[in-house]
Amino acid sequence: MAVYKTRSLATVCNRPILLLYDPKVIQYRLIFVEKLKEAKKWKGLPLRMEKKIQSALISVFYKDGLAPLAKTLHALNITIYSTGGTQQFIEDLGIPCIGVETVTGYPSILGGRVKTLHPSIFGGILGRRYEDQDLKEMEQYKIPALDLVIVDLYPFEETLKNTDEEKLIIEKIDIGGPSMIRAAGKNFRDLVVIAAKDDYSKLNQILIDQKGTTTIEQRKSFAAKAFEVVMHYDVAISNYFNPASGKVLRYGENPHQVATFYGNLENWFTQLHGKELSYNNLVDVDAAIALIADLPLTSFAIIKHTNVCGVAKRNTVFESWQAALAGDPESAFGGVLVTNAIIDLATAEAIQEIFFEVLIAPGFDPAAFVILSAKKNRILLELKNEVSFNPTQKKSILNGILEQGLDNGNYSKWEEVGARPSTEKEKEDLIFGNIICKHLKSNAIALIKNNQLVGKGCGQTSRVDALRHAIEKAKQFKFDLKGASLASDAFFPFDDCVRIAHEEGIEAYIQPGGSVRDKDSVAYCQTNGLAMVMTEQRHFKH
To answer: CA–CA separation, 511 vs 524, rounded Å?
Structure first.
């Protein structure tokens, strides 16, 4: 016998009681306890919430993948309730099925708009098996308890893609489906809810392995997925009815955060392929476009969590991609890719080998587009030729708004303060690296060699830590730092960074200057024959 945590100690006839659950018979019982002290021992114990499924409601639009699960339910002697085409599908498998109209006493009415919207169905879903009053009412009104709800949603988004006829679109706004999914998700303590066909096989395996039982963790996980499905569905409907307002996104930075985009994305790019852009996609796309706008032609960059994890400039887009990826192939997984060159076939074939979320480019060769669009959800954006950023940036803080001008430009001044002037090759790398630093979170260090980011440290609370991270990254991917250049988004308050980098073979540095201890790093460079440039333009990015 499993004991459930009591919400409060109740009494009947001045005697304390506990609510106990017997998984063998799927039934709750009130147990009298002789002493209140004894009852308190049980209150607050962890829940043992393994539940055996005895009944299931199945009503789905898509039947693919359902047959194995239905057969497992039947083999476990689980009673199945169903509707319309789903009922016919299950019965054609030789599996007995009870129509919901048998429970509700009503046939499907109003052209199929009303089938499951009835207290006998929703009472069976929402009834709490641990509440005595709920159990009494379910018995009184002959409401069957439902332990599993498998429901998907009418294909609203698919219909939008295939027609602009309003009547057809409106009829694909599901009512009963989202209602049942939400109800089942709310009552996850007692129910399993499946709202997506890609979870059929997962549930099927659980039922086979656990002989028809599920744990509270499993039920909660399925419920979380179900609410996400409904949220996405509601967002699609909202966007249909509000095309001119802010665009409601699937969710924000995390699934529990709501989010809306206000603006016109068409001013920046045309989405050629893929799923709807998410909040995080848009944040990374913004960072990617801002970076590529500062880089010379045929550059390629990889963005992860708004930071650059790989970037290079070569003579061709293919070579630039290879060099950018080599900078940190590990971090590139699932990133946002951006280039200021046309994607050709060779580059597309190379890019195809890794997983990425978004690719931004000014254009795609036809053969390249065919390859890259083979994956359904991959987002391909064609960048507009002329884009311009707002002259100010805004950020909400403390229920107010901060506003500032853009961080335009690379350097205000080019002052050689080291033992020697930077060579032409070093100067090229220093200019390139300073741009990269501008687009990394502070504190930031970028190590550049031959117009390729070979190591970076960003978002560190110590500039020394940022440098150490950059060096570690470079060594991780076998880069020789001898002859590399170093860019820092802010000044060196001591000579420690220059000294550590010099030990690794780095001989050219660029930084804004402005520290009262500038002379320390300058003196080190002058003593050791190193080049150092001061720009008088800091690039903090918080």
So the answer is: 14
Spatial distance between the Cα atoms of 255 and 227, rounded to a whole number of angstroms? 10
Name which of 132, 128, 168 is nearest 146 in CA terms: 128
* Angle at alpha carbon of residue 233, lines to 228 and 236, rounded to 5°: 125
Q: Answer whether the bond into residue 264 is a cis peptide, omega within 30°.
A: no
Q: How many CB atoms lie within 10 A of CB 128?
A: 14
In the prediction, which pLDDT does 524 show?
Answer: 93
Q: Does residue 451 sit in the same domain as residue 485?
A: yes
pLDDT in tens, 218-268: 999 999 999 988 888 888 888 788 776 677 788 888 988 888 888 888 888
**For residue 248, is it within any domain?**
no
Decide if 97 contacts 74 (C-beta within 8 A). Answer: no
Q: Please check whether residues 264 and 297 belong to one and the same domain.
A: yes
532/528 Cα distance (integer angstroms): 11
Count other C-beta atoms under 10 Å from residue 270's C-beta: 11
pTM: 0.59
- Please report the pLDDT score of residue 244 as a whole number: 62
Which pLDDT score, from 0 to 100, does residue 245 have?
65
**With 0-12 CB in 10 A as exposed, 13-18 as middle and 19+ as buried, what is 1?**
exposed
* Catalytic positions: 186, 305
Q: What is the tens place of the pLDDT at every residue in 459-472?
A: 888 889 999 999 99
- Cα distance between residue 522 and residue 492, in whole Å: 10
Same domain, 236 and 277: no
Q: Do 446 and 464 contact (CB within 8 A), yes or no?
A: no
Q: Is 424 helix (H, G, I), strand (E, B) or coil?
A: helix
Please give the structure tokens belonging to residue 344.
């050709």
193 token code pair? 């809810």
The domain of 286 spans 260-383
Regarding whether 37 and 57 lie in a shared domain, the answer is: no
Q: Would you list the DSSP string of 166-192?
A: HHHHHHT--SHHHHHHHHHHHTTTT-E
Count up the domains in the chain and report the number. 4
Based on the fold, state whether residues 427 and 449 are members of the same structural domain: yes
The token pair at 242 is: 């509000």
Q: How many CB atoms lie within 10 A of CB 521?
A: 28
Tracing tokens 């194995």 back to the chain, one arrives at 68
* DSSP 8-class letter at 277: P
In angstroms, rounded to a whole number, what is the distance separating the alpha carbons of residues 502 and 488?
14
Residues of the chain with pLDDT under 70: 1-48, 244-245
Q: Which helix (H) or strand (E) holds 260?
A: strand 260-261
What is the reported pLDDT for 195?
A: 92
What residues have CB less than 8 Å from 403, skipping those under 6 apart? 392, 393, 394, 395
Token code pair at residue 220: 């909660």
Residue 296 one-letter amino acid: P
Q: What percent of the chain has pLDDT over 70?
A: 90
Q: How far apart, in whole angstroms, are the C-alpha atoms of residue 309 and residue 454?
A: 9
Q: Which helix (H) or strand (E) holds 496?
A: helix 496-503
Q: Do 199 and 285 reside in the same domain of the chain?
A: no
Instruction: Give pLDDT, residue 10.
Output: 45
